[in-house]
Structures are given as structure tokens and as C-alpha cells.
Amino acid sequence: MGSRTPLYATHLAAGAKMVDFGGWDMPVHYGSQIEEHHAVRRDAGMFDVSHMCVVDLGGERVREFLLALLANDVAKLRTRGKALYSCMLNETGGVIDDLIVYYLDEGLFRLVVNAGTRDKDIAWIRARAAAHAVTVEPRHDLAMIAVQGPEARQKAARAAGPEAGAALELTPFTGGQFGRCFIARTGYTGEDGWEIVTPASEVTDLWSALVDADVRPCGLGARDTLRLEAGMNLYGNDMDESVTPLESALGWTVAFVPEDRDFVGRAALEQQQRDGLTRKLVGLLLEDRGVLRSHQKVIVPGLGEGELTSGTFSPTLERSIGLARIPMAAGDRVEVEIRGKWLPARVVKPPFVRNGQACISL
Amino acid sequence: MSNIPTELKYRKSHEWVRDEGDGTVTVGISDHAQQALGDLVFVEIPEVGRELSAGEACAVVESVKAASDVYSPVSGAVTAANDALAGSPEIVNQDPYGAGWIARIRLSDPAELDGLLAASQYEEVVKAAED
Q1: b/e per residue, A158-179, with b = 16+ CB within 10 A?
Q2: B38/A29 CB distance under 8 A
């Protein structure tokens, strides 16, 4: 038996098909993964993301600590509530995890880290926090629901308590405390929406209120097709400790300026830049019928091989899409091996879909 | 609980077989199989004329989450395949025993039908899978 979120019984009662995800029993769908996907693109859907871990970091020197811990630069967080996406690297530049960091107060920052990496993340952070007199508090008392889609914020504002209406003023990538809920205008689907952190003891009530507000429960299956259409990496698939952000299409999240900010992994990334990158992570669109899947082999004629890191059928585009790590010099044509056949695929720049609209030519 | 028509025969790997009474059979995947796979997004059908052995992988059904082989329950030549599935794989989800058929096969050994599962036997297989 895996770990369970406070919504486990709620999922079962709603007819969810449960699967193991990083040691957690989570809903993969509640009947139709594709209908759940479309609900998020066209209206509003919600995901139980309570398996992810909120970690609060406290202390006078917490900002200074994060300047060294994260590859992105928390100096960009100037106003309270502002969020930043960053990788946390090891000394060789490998990705320990990707996370969101919120600036709550000068002595208090909040991280949201992945479920499958939470234990190693916390150990890594704790091992470095003491030198900066920073406290590390995993918030096991909290649960989280992501409400996503063009109508998500309006519907969630009706469901998340009397104070939630004020959260409609939040600009993208900011958050704040509204009554019992910490609400942030963030997500992992390529749609507008909120991620709502609430006391674990109250999350089933919030879920029910969202159902009453006509927000559709969605499983991890739809979450994966949505994030892939949005061109967002999944930790463990598209990157891990064996690759750097520069090889994972995440160079934009690494802040090399200011040059004197010495974050963990910086020297390794600079060395990799001097040596020249040999691989890149790109989007693929399968030209033929069929479905791209992770670990399928990619051939770049004349340059060598690569591999799919994620692949799926895109319900919005009705085509198969994927992410692949391929030789740096590859152009826009590759071939993918699917059941012994080599099928042509086009290299495209993600996202594939944003705000309900295709972003690539088909 | 899934639908298991009593007039059909089954393979334990979740294919169904309808004896058309003219030396051919129609083959598809069961209601349980389509439910377990979820929304189908791609079906690869066998080529007409292909000679199949019983137990040979003859088609592929892919849902959003995974690909599965479909095994021929009988030996024989493919006389027809359901082209409609290329553009509309969801037909298999909607009507697995009707419009969602996959292939028609001319039996090379009609005695093979006797080795397939009756509906009641297949029901036991499904029960075990759902437990």
C-alpha cells in the first residue's frame, strides 16, 4: 500500500481508478482521461496534488540561503507573494528537483517540491540550512488542490471561502493567504488557474465545494497530457540528476547574472558551457499515426541517436507529441522507432498548446 | 462489471471471437479490455491477406496511457479489417462487440474454436483481473 492523501476516500467514492505514483496511491482518472483533459482546456478541472510537499523555510538569512541553494535567483522575488520556478542542483549540475519558491515574508519563504523527491529534497536542504540558521519545516498539515482552466478562478473563488474573491486580483505567478487558504495563480497545465493550499483537515470540504461549483475532478493521466501539451518537464522523466538544466530546455531558469552569485552547481554548468553542449531537449510532433512514448529511440540522420523522455497522444491537437533528448546539432527532422518501424517526426519548440490554443503548426 | 455476451467466445488475453457460420470469425477486444485500457487513441489493424497463427500479435490498441498487443485467437487469413478504427479509435470504447470489431479471419483450423473460453469461463478471468 502506498501513501494516501486526505482525499483518498473521496477519490474512491468518485469512482477513480487509482495507480501508484512515486509511492502514492493517486487517481489516474475518474472515467475518461480525455474528457478530463478537455474540461481543463475548455472549462475547469481540479487535481489533488496533496502528494506534493510544501516546505516552509524560516529565518533572517533565508533569502541568502536560497541565493546559494537554487539555480534561479530569488533576488527576482521583490514583492511578497511572488513565485519563482527553479531547479535545485547538485554539485555536478544534475537536477535534484524542480520546484516553486514563494516569497512570503523576509524571514519566510515557501517551497513546493515533487512527491517522488520530497525526502531527498528535505535531506539536501536540511544539510545546508543549518549554516544559514534556516529552519526547514515540511508542512504535513497542509493539502493542495490545483484548479485549472479558463473558468477555474471564477469557479474556485465561489468555493474557497468568503475571502477567496479577493484572490481574483492575483497576477500570474503570485500568491497569498486568503482566509484559511493559501492561493497562488500557478499551475502545470498551460491554462489559467489557482493552486490552493489548505489545512489537510479541511481539504475534503474544499473539494466538495469545488465539485458543487461545477469543477471537474481530473486524474494524473490528464495532468500528464496537459503538462506535456504545455511543454512542461516532468521530473524523473524529462530530467533527473544525470542531466543539467541546460540539457533539459531549462536554461532560461538558470540565472548566471549576477556573476558573483555562487549557487550549487554553477561551476559545473559553466564548465559544460565552455565544453559545449552535446544534447538538447526538444519537442517532437509525430508526422504519422501512432503514439510517441518515453524511452522510444530517436535517430537524427548523420548525427546519432537520442531518446524520447515523454510521449503521449495530445487530445487537443489529436496528434502524438513528445519531448526528446537528441544531439545538439539536430535540425527539424528526426525518426522515431515505434514497434520496429521508423516513423518521421518534426522537431518543434514547445509549448504545443497554451490557453486552449495550438502553438505549433500541424 | 463489464459486459460479456454469452454468444461469443473469448481468449484469456481479452479478445472475443464471433463465429459467423461461414468459415470465418470476427475478432475484437472485450468490454473489460477497453475499460482497462481507457480512451483509445490509436488502433493498428492487420493487413488483409495476412496469415495469422493462433496467439500471434495481430493488432495494437493504444490508449492515452499505454499500448497493448491484440492476439489472434485463431489461425487463418485476414479477410477484412476495420478501417474505420484508423480515424475513430474511440469506436472500440463505445461499441467493443459491434462497430468496434478489429478483423475478420478465415479459419484454417475450425477445431481451434473449441479451445476458446465460453462466456462463463471468461467471466472468471475478468473477476480475477478485477480483484
Answers
A1: ebbbeebeebeebeebbbbebe
A2: yes
pLDDT of residue B65: 80
Pairing of the two strands A45-48 and A216-217: parallel
Provide the chain B residues 85-114 that lie in CB contact (below 8 A) with chain A.
86
Range of the domain at B97: 10-105
Cα–Cα distance, B78 to A34 (Å, whole number): 32
User: DSSP of A21-68, one letter per residue?
Assistant: ETTEEEEEESS-HHHHHHHHHHS-EEEE-TTSEEEEEESTTHHHHHHH
**Phi, psi for A231 (deg, rounded to 5):** 70, 25
pLDDT score, position A83: 98
Contact with chain A for residue B57, Cβ under 8 A: no
Nearest CA in chain A to B66: A293
Q: What is the per-residue DSSP string for B42-84?
A: EEEPPPTT-EE-TT-EEEEEEESS-EEEEE-SS-EEEEEE-TH
**Cα–Cα dist B99/B94, whole Å:** 8
Select A54-138's CATH number: 3.20.20.70, 3.30.70.20, 3.30.70.1050, 3.30.70.1400: 3.30.70.1400
Element (H, E) at A344: strand A341-348
Contact assessment for residue A113 and residue A53, using Cβ atoms and an 8 Å cutoff:
yes
Our CA angle for A41, A86, A279, nearest 5°, is 90
B62 touches chain A (CB under 8 A): yes
Asked if residue B15 belongs to a domain, the reply is yes
Q: Which CATH class is domain A245-358?
A: mainly beta
Query: Residue B130: its pLDDT value, please?
Result: 76
Task: Dump pLDDT digits (tens) for A272-321.
Answer: 999 999 999 999 999 998 999 999 999 999 999 999 999 999 999 999 99
Please report residues of B whose CB lies closer than 8 A to that of A293.
Answer: 67
- Stretch (H or E) spanning A130: none
Q: How far is residue B8 CA from its own chain's centroid?
A: 11
Q: What is the mean pLDDT of chain B?
A: 95
Strands B51-52 and B40-44 come out as: unpaired
Chain A hits for B86, CB-CB cut-off 8 Å, are 289
Q: How many domains would you assign to chain B?
A: 1
β-sheet with A181-184: strand ranges across: A175-178, A181-184, A193-199, A142-148, A45-48, A216-217
Measured between alpha carbons, how far is A232 from A164 in angstroms, rounded to an integer? 28
Residue A300: name the closest of A347, A325, A346, A334 by CA: A334
How confident is the model over A30-40, as pLDDT tens digits?
A: 999 999 999 99
In CATH, the number for domain A8-47+141-229 is 3.30.1360.120
